[in-house]
Amino acid sequence: MWKIANRVWLLVCLLVFISVGAIWILVESQGTVFAQDTDRFVTKRVFERVLTLQERQPLYMKGAVLTQIGELAADQPVVIIGEDEVYYELRLGNMPAFIRKGEAPVEKKKLLTVVHPERFAAVRTLQKTAVYETADLRSGVILELEEGYRYPIVREEEDWYILTIGERPGYIAKQTVAMDVGLPVLVYHQVLPLELMSTMNSTISLESFEQQMEYLADRQFKTLTALQLYDYLEGRLVVPNKAVLITFDDGLLSTKEFAYPILKQYGFTALQHIISSRTDRVQGTQLFDAEGPLQFFTAADLEALADVFEFEAHTYELHALNGDSGVGVALERSKEEILLDLQRNMVQVPGAVSVAYPFGHYDEDFIAAAKEAGLLIGFTTNEGYANRKNSNYEVCRYGVTEKKSFKQFVAYVEGQHDMAMEEGEGS
Q1: What Pfam families does the annotation carry (predicted)?
Q2: Could you confirm whether domain 185-426 is CATH 3.20.20.370?
Q3: From residue 26, how far is each of 15, 30, 34, 279 by CA, in Å?
């Protein structure tokens, strides 16, 4: 009996041991699955060319000139993707960035890297800003960002924003930066001296336009091109906090007469969206007449004004409304018909990167046609900012006419669109 009882006791102990072991394995397994699910944003990977600086070094982006956008820390490995005689190339987000060559080892190494980075948003630096190895202020600093720029981020986690630098995740404490609402994009049509204005619809006075451009110049705003806007939206360009895109729709002669000299005076550039079926209405020299029918750029004007205006698409002959429905005629066309019209439009503006939808009317067929035509941006008339949260083919702008106050204009370009709208409601 004693032997039987002893064997039963041993059997019970064995079953308890097996059960506890099974529970432990299950807990460990669940913990591993949970960890993998949490950490699947990052993984470790071997890279063939990893640079580890021996001292801090400036990080540049290339444009017309080299611009310093940060400073890489010593003893922080980063992956390089190219080089020339003077610089190593790495990536900040999707943007190429450069550091000068020096006495630093390049070797094969395993690093923590981001898996499937998202198109998320951007942040604005208000002072020099540290980028940490992990979500911990006590961890090492990989990079220090420059003050006054917008940097692309791929994710947020609790109190941190994450960007990628040299294929590594870098963590920015939220309290040290401001979320970037997006780039201000202004749209104008007609510009006339106040004494010649007969309506405020789609028209701004020369006096107001000059006041606005003077404000941008005094605050040292930089005007961007359509391609720079595209690169910003794709995370391939760091742009200044003080940046703006100036656009004009329709190619009206008044903008040559009155806007062009002011833009040139301040060293600004602007997009001019051309309705190409209207550029051949007049041959030879065209004298401006504010009291007559609307006048448009000629082909000769496009050539003469290219130092300030970047000419973009606005359709060939789809800039019209259906008289019965009040809807843009493009919405009554098939994708193939819109594509043919855009291709005809782009014969005259072959460098076009963007299209401004006539009257702001567009649909899925219009977007599909724009993509097939090779255009990268679609401008709407919806008021707001150009940012990474919206489609590149639904970019918002801010319509500027004499109805908008100078205070509204300032609020918008300074990133306070809600305040600009409130001012408008109260005026």
Answers
A1: Polysacc_deac_1
A2: yes
A3: 16, 6, 12, 74
pLDDT higher than threshold 50 for residue 121: yes
Locate the DSSP E strands across 106-198.
106-114, 121-125, 129-132, 141-145, 149-153, 155-157, 160-165, 168-173, 177-179, 185-188, 190-192
pLDDT digits over 122-154, tens only?
999 999 999 999 999 999 999 999 999 999 999
Q: What are the extents of the domains in the chain? A: 42-179, 185-426
> What 3-state DSSP class applies to 298?
coil
**pLDDT, position 286:** 84
**For 252-263, what is the mean pLDDT?**
98
Q: How confident is the model at residue 427 (pLDDT cuts 50, 70, 90)?
A: very low
Helix (H) or strand (E) holding 35: helix 2-39
Looking at residue 29, what is its pLDDT? 35
Helix 206-218 vs helix 406-413: angle between axes, to the nearest 10 degrees?
40
Residue 75 has φ and ψ, to the nearest 5°, of 60, 25
Alpha-carbon span 262 to 267, nearest angstrom: 9
What gap in Å lies between CA 420 and CA 399, rounded to an integer? Answer: 12
* CA 370/CA 221 separation, integer angstroms: 30
Q: Whose CA is closest to 231, among 239, 242, 241?
A: 239
Q: Are strands 149-153 and 121-125 parallel, antiparallel or unpaired?
A: antiparallel
Encoded amino acid at 360, one letter: G
Distance CA(186)–CA(188), nearest Å, equals 7
